[in-house]
Amino acid sequence: MPPAIETVDLVKEYGELRALQELSLTVEEGEFFGLLGPNGAGKTTFINTLVGLVRKSGGEARVFGYDVEDDYRQARDAIGLAPQEFNVDRFFSIREVLKHKAGYHGVPESEAADRADEVLKRVGIYDKRDERFDWLSGGMKRRLLLARALVTEPDLLILDEPTAGVDVQLRHDLWELVTELNDEGTTILLTTHYIEEAERLCDRVAIMNEGRKVTVATPDELKQRGTDTIAVGLESTPDGAPELGAYAHETTVSGDRLEVRVDDGGSTAPRLLNDLEAMGHEIADLEITRTSLEEIFVDLTRSEDRTVTRSGTESGEDTGDDGSEVDAPSTPEREREQEGVA
Ligand SMILES: Nc1ncnc2c1ncn2[C@@H]1O[C@H](COP(=O)(O)OP(=O)(O)OP(=O)(O)O)[C@@H](O)[C@H]1O
Questions:
Q1: Whose CA is nearest to atom 2 of ligand 1?
Q2: What residue stretch is flagged as signal peptide (predicted)?
C-alpha cells in the first residue's frame, strides 16, 4: 500500500514568497500525524495543495499513490477535509449540505441521506439537522465541518486546526472522536497550535517553519531533545556562579538561588549536590523542571528569510498584480469546492 501522503521537494510560491520550500514528507497509512508550526509556516498551503485548492509550483504530491493534480479525482475522493475557515453553503439545511457533499463524491442519493444522518449523530448535532449553518453556534459549526469531512467515509481525514477557539468540552469530544476514527483505520493529518493536543493524539509530528520541514519525530523523541533545569536553593548567597563540570551547560545565580541547565535532571542532580556540598554550600531545597514540548517547539521555529531570491519567472503565473494568490481552479468542480458549495 502506498503512503497516505507522500510529497517530494514540494514547492509553492506566492509571487516572491516561498510558502513551501522543498517539503518532503511521508505519512503512512493508519498514522495519526501532526503538522505543527507557527502562523504562516505553510500548513494550510500544504493541505490545500493536497486537496487541489492550490496548484503546486514544483515537486511531487501523492495521496495513496494518486498524484494530486494528474489523478485529482481519485486523490480528492480519498480525503475528508475539515478546513480552518467556515466555507459552508448557507442556503440549505445542514443535512442537505451533507447530502450534497456525499453526492458530489459519487454516493447515491438514498445512501447519502443515511450517511448524512449517521455523521450528524456521530458528531452530536443530529437534532440540528434541519437548521441552516448560520444558525449554529461556533462549536456546532466546527462539529458540522467534521461531519462534512466524514460523510464521504474518507481514508485520509485532514483537520486544519479543528479545535481553534472551541470550549474544553468540545475539544475533548473531538479528541475522542478522532481517536476512535484513527483506531478504526482512518489516517489523520492534524494541524494545530496546541502542543498538548499534538502530544496527546499524534504518533508522529512534523514541525514546519517558514515553508520548510524542521523535523519529524514522535512527541517523546522531541521531548528528549530538550534540556532540564535544576534549581537549587542555598542556605547562603554564593559569591558568583560555582565552577561545575561539563554536565552543566549554563549556570546562573540570583541571590541564594542557583539554576543549572543539564541534559537529564534526574541523573545529574545527585552529582550536582555532591559538587556543591564539596564546595562548602549548604542546600536548602531542589527542584527539577523539564523543558516542555512547547519550549522545544519555540526553539526549533525561529525565523529565517524565505523570499525567492532568483528572478522567479516561474512564480509569476500564480500571482496577480497586487501579489495576491490567483490560483484559478482548473475545473468547475474545484471552483465549487473552493466556494464551499460542494
Ligand atoms: N493566497 C495566498 N496568496 C499569497 N500569499 C499567501 C496565500 N495563502 C497563504 N499565503 C502566505 O503563505 C504563507 C503560508 O501561509 P499558510 O496559511 O499556509 O500558513 P499556516 O501555517 O497555515 O498559518 P496559520 O497557522 O496562521 O494558519 C504565509 O506567509 C501566507 O501569508
A1: 325
A2: none
ipTM of the complex: 0.97
Q: What is the 3-state secondary structure (H, E, C) of 68-95?
A: CCCCHHHHHHCEEEECCCCCCCCCCEHH
Strand partners of residue 209? 212
Structural element, H or E, at residue 26: strand 17-27
Contact (Cβ atoms closer than 8 angstroms) between residue 159 and residue 191: yes
- pLDDT at residue 330 tops 90: no
CA of 78 to the centre of ligand 1 (A): 24
How confident is residue 284, by pLDDT bands cut at 50, 70 and 90?
Answer: very high
- Whether the CB-CB separation of 53 and 20 falls below 8 Å is answered with no
- Cβ < 6 Å from ligand 1: which residues? 14, 17, 19, 37, 39-45, 324-325
Higher-confidence residue of 68 and 239: namely: 68
pTM of the model: 0.78
pLDDT averaged over every residue in the chain: 86
- β-partners of residue 12 are 20
CB atoms within 10 A of CB 246: 5
**pLDDT value for 234:** 95
| Per-residue cell: 119 | 455523521
Pick the CATH number of 5-78+154-222+298-328 from 3.40.50.1240, 2.30.29.30, 3.40.50.1820, 3.40.50.300: 3.40.50.300
Cα distances from 274 to residues 199, 235, 244, 282, in angstroms, run 35, 15, 11, 10
d(CA 114, CA 123): 15
Q: What cell numbers appear for 4 in the block?
A: 497516505
C-alpha cell at 331: 475545473
CATH number of 227-290, picked from 1.10.10, 3.30.70, 2.60.120, 3.10.20: 3.30.70
Tell me which residue has its CA closest to atom 30 in ligand 1. Answer: 40
| Domain layout of the chain by residue ranges | 5-78+154-222+298-328, 227-290
CA distance 189 to 202: 9
